Amino acid sequence: MKHSAPLLLSLFFLSVSGCRLAESSGASGGITVEWIYSEEGKDAAAIPSFAWLSDGTAILHDHRRPAKERTLERFDPRTRKRMDLVDAAKVLERLGGLLEKDQAPGSLGWPAVIARDGRWGIYLFGGDLFALDLSTSVINRITRTAAREKSPRLSPDGTKLAFVREGDLYTWDLEKGVERRLTSDGSDTLLNGTLSWVYWEEVFARRDLGYWWSEDSTALAYLRTDESAVTEMIYQGFEPNIPALTRQRYPKTGGVNPSVRLGVLELASGKTTWVDLSKHKHEYIVRVKWLNDSRRLAVQAMDRSQTRLDLFFVGREEGKPTHILTERDKGWVNIHDDLYFLEKSDRFLWASERSGHMHLYLYDLEGKLLGPVTSGEWAIRSAAGAVSWLRQAVHSIDEEGGWVYFTSIRESSIEKQLDRVRLDGSGLERLTKESGTHGIGFSENGRFYFNQHSSGSTPPSLSLHARDGSRLELVAPSRPGIFSSLGMLHPEHFSIKTDDGFRMPAELLKPAGFSPGRKYPVIMHVYGGPAAPMVKDAWPSRTYFDQVLLNHGYVVFRCDNRSATARSKALENGILHDAWGSGELADLIEAIGWLKSQPWVDPDRVGIWGWSGGGSFTLRAMTGSGEFRAGISVAPVTDWDYYDTIWTEAFMKRPQDNPEGYERTSLVRKASELRGRLLIVHGTHDDNVHPQNTLHFVNELIRAGIQFEMMLYPGRKHSIRDDPARRHLYRKMLEFWKSNL
After folding, report:
1. Residues of the chain with pLDDT under 70
2. Which residue numbers are catalytic?
3. Where are the domains of the chain?
4. Domain 5-41+487-643+674-740: which topology?
5. Tens digit of pLDDT for each residue in 263-273?
6. pTM, whole model, 2 decimals?
């Protein structure tokens, strides 16, 4: 139920205009739903994709170029020169002969994988693998199978490609052109090197990270998942005449999880050595990483309650674990990717929230704490993760200079800035200059980095910097003219002080020609989940629908409840046993109280909306208060019994351990208390938040005699992602706001 990049896209949330304002606004052009889903709209804020290579140069792919001219480019940070690396026309012509017409791309896109040395780019077309030799612009088909290949990853030496087909691991020798099957017991419920849904979603943050190459390219560590005992969900289509059924293994709260083992497969022998964690009680294997010597693995395991995480080092040959450290938290331990082994000494960096804030610590390889690297009443924080529960803040380690480079929310929880600090904890300094959000990508040698910068009023740009922070080149400048010509309006950021003194981050967007002497309808967009803020000083590429609402005379409002701000683990733990419950609602009511006290707000015309967790929060607000005249709830969880084990049990624990909490937070049980007009939306094939959530809630509305509107999207999943459905949804939302606010 977490929101993600595509999900946020729908954020656009908010509403549309109130009756009388709608008729006088919105017809003047500007950003429209049609523009948002046009190629122009999708590319307006684009900046080049990039990948650093082992020789210190980078590969770029610039979406700003006309589609037929897009190709892979080589960029040298030393000379600042960029030049086409691949003859795209040659590649596309050959692909035209290798693929069916409906599969052939119209332009050369970004590869699924790029070799570290820049020799190969791997593509997936129609479920088959293709290898592009970047030095010759020759692309060749690797596979031609009825089954789909997925999760390709090149070996560090660039000679072999690993991938997964029908639950089994394979390799392809790029020089010899030979395929090799590594495992043979894969099936619908037994998965080698690929993840079950709940691990993909909750543990690895929507990344299919089911195997890992050793640095010496001679072995693969992989997860073997047996989900035969996991409960099965079934989704019915609408064609053919006997509709097709889609099946999914999905563990509901309190139920049986997939059984997961970790093995190390030696390519020379084909033998797998299984890691033996039987003497260490655990439910989940949550991270795997090779040490620099390729002889040992770092393995993180967690218990079912998620209050304890253990780090082990495991010998590659015997599979026996050595316990290194334990993390504990009274609520739950957040999983992260900030584990780094230093190359010039027997030490490693580790992130922890033991102080109440996420910080870095230095250890020796025996697990002895050498000291904190960062500290204080602030947190390191990922800068550009696709989802809020992907935590990776460290970007580079300069061992010779003694520096660690990381992004943080040290100065503001709505910004992401690049800082550096010495390994001994001294010399903390900020490197990025501009306010806003900075996404950082360092070269392998640590001498240069790309900075993807934007703010709420500044479209994205890409710049090259030296490691001391000095800017060397503006690779792709910001393009504000595109948006100013469309009359785009920008948010005001501020904070709202609660009765107990906490300052909640907030933002407002006001229509053009705003007059404080008039009364305006307001639409509040919410999410509310732990460490998942909606208020950000970043370019709103995924929330352009705000502008449509502004054009129709609405004010758009967001305010993060304290547990959503990501400022500290202590704040997150406030939802323990009561997620999307009384604490979050109390903060929301205070925010609405502030809003309605503004002289330009029409207090009788305030709406609320959200998606996924925000859809749940919308229903919580409309059943727990009478503050909202109307609301839109998209893909809500309406009872924690209907959601998955890992996410839900982190803060709610199992139903059998917290029955009062499950009952207290059930929206199904509160449906009869709904106040205000409701539009509820769901995709019929939502494999994240199952349609039963909406169906059960509306059934209770029917029993209570409460009228509502409902929109189902056939065959769509959680994000209702395709352009026609998105256009339809936002037009439906606009229509609803016009009629009800």
Report:
1. 1-29, 384-385
2. 612, 686, 718
3. 5-41+487-643+674-740, 47-157
4. Rossmann fold (3.40.50)
5. 999 999 999 99
6. 0.95
